[in-house]
């Protein structure tokens, strides 16, 4: 396997560059990320199709990773219950070293080939679920060991990797290979690889939530009413969708129902 992510940067003597030269070069490299994802869309679509099928039949989704990719998946998963009103535990993260240590860079934990599968077992993983391994290199022992355990136990897996022909992709049922090329700083996969991982997590979770019916038109009708900004946005959403014109009346209905979706259902039942 050729580790493109570890190949030397195309840029040299960075310490001699002006600020505008550095930012322009980073921006130039970042522009290539979306194009790399575009090439992998058929793989992404296949993975999402399987995720949706699993969740619709009572299964759960698990991100599993280490380093930047693992931490980015934590950020994705923790926002879903609020944004889409889904229950906690539908989308989960197994992070090397533990999600409770998110702000610590416990990079040595990625070399533990046994911990990932142990953590999945502790979460009562079953063949109803789906596990997505995230690894820029495509060889992270923490991720690889867990995917091997899943395969041995008939659990569906996917992966997000940044090198072609990786060992992790070979052990995933639904691999997504987004080859973003050498990094601006050699080997610093928190950059383009991390950007690709963030974009893919957004794409996967957002599309999944839409497919599960958590979005109507283009609106977060199931968003949880956790602060004044969201409440105000939800009141206005309810007024737009229902034709209500009195803000206070709409707010009263919304707060009693708990969500825009529930409020609209209540209005339909009255009619």
Automatic annotation (TrEMBL):
SIS domain boundaries: 51-214
Pfam families associated with the record: GKRP_SIS_N (PF22645)
Gene Ontology BP annotations: amino sugar catabolic process; peptidoglycan turnover
Superkingdom of the organism of origin: Bacteria
The entry's keywords: Carbohydrate metabolism, Lyase
Signal peptide per UniProt: none
Protein name per Swiss-Prot or TrEMBL: N-acetylmuramic acid 6-phosphate etherase
NCBIfam families hit by this protein: PRK05441.1, PRK12570.1
A molecular function (GO) term: carbohydrate derivative binding
């Amino acid at each position: 396997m050729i580790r493109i992510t570890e190949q030397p940067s195309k840029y040299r003597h960075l310490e001699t560059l002006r600020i505008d030269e550095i930012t322009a070069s980073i921006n130039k490299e970042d522009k290539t990320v979306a194009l790399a994802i575009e090439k992998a869309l058929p793989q992404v679509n296949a993975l999402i199709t399987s995720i949706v099928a699993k969740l619709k039949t009572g299964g759960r989704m698990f991100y599993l990773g280490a380093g930047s990719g693992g931490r980015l998946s934590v950020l994705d998963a923790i926002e879903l219950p609020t944004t889409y009103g889904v229950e906690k535990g539908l989308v989960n993260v197994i992070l090397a070293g533990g999600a409770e240590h998110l702000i610590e860079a416990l990079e040595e934990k990625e070399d533990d080939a046994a911990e990932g599968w142990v953590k999945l077992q502790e979460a009562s993983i079953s063949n109803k679920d789906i596990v997505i391994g995230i690894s820029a290199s495509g060889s992270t022992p923490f991720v690889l060991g867990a995917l091997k355990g899943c395969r041995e136990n008939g659990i569906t897996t996917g992966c997000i990797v940044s090198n072609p022909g990786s060992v992790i992709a070979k052990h995933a049922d639904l691999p997504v290979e987004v080859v973003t090329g050498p990094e601006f700083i050699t080997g610093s996969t928190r950059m383009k690889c991390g950007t690709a991982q963030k974009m893919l997590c957004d794409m996967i979770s957002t599309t999944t939530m839409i497919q599960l019916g958590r979005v109507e038109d283009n609106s977060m009708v199931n968003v949880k009413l956790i602060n004044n900004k969201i409440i105000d946005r939800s009141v206005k959403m309810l007024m737009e969708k229902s034709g209500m014109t009195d803000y206070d009346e709409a707010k009263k209905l919304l707060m009693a129902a708990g969500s825009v979706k529930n409020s609209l259902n209540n209005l339909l039942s009255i009619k």
